[in-house]
Amino acid sequence: MRQTKENVSQSINNDSYVAHKITETLLDLLKKHDLNRISISALCNKAGVGRASFYRNFNSKEDVLKKYDKKLIELWGKDYEKNSNSTIETLIPSLISHYKKHQEFYSILYKENLSYIVLDTILYACKLQEKKSNIEAYVTAFIGYGIFGIINEWIARGMTETNEELLKIIQKK
């Protein structure tokens, strides 16, 4: 098929739809099955897409989860930046709310021993790779790993505290 503006655009929109279907289906399957027990073929069959479509959008099942987490954190970041009440003081409470809102997804990551995805996403959100000077990189790493430490332990322990309770615990220490 000769590429035109119309069919390239349609392909891009179709890939977006396919990626959404694969992600939605994988998250649904992970409610009942371990990640290592879900084959790419079974995932594609349940999502109603071909294996080629899967590999056009993702490298692995873990990649599906990484991209979904990145999308979630980017949406959180856009909302945070748009909010005129956002300050450095509201950053941690806002992040805690984000993780609590998506508790089911983050619990799946921890059940599957994929907490590194959360770390990678936090470091991405901190823009650690963009820092120019050593001091900026060190401070950003300190903040990013600190946030991860709190969130990691909270998710690992089942997120039993409310957002407010966790924030009070953090502020006491």
Short description:
The chain has helices at about 5-30, 40-45, 50-55, 60-80, 90-100, 105-110, 115-125, 135-155, 165-170. The chain is an all-alpha fold and about 170 residues long.
**Helicity level:** over 70%
Kindly report the average pLDDT value: 87
Major sheet characteristics = none
The tally of strands reads 0
Q: Tell me what portion of residues adopts beta-strand conformation.
A: under 5%
Work out the radius of gyration: 19 Å
N- and C-termini, Cα separation: 63 Å
What are the segments in which pLDDT stays under 50 over at least 5 consecutive residues? 1-13
Number of helices: 9
What series of H and E elements makes up the topology? HHHHHHHHH
Shape descriptor reads globular
Tell me the structural class. Answer: mainly alpha
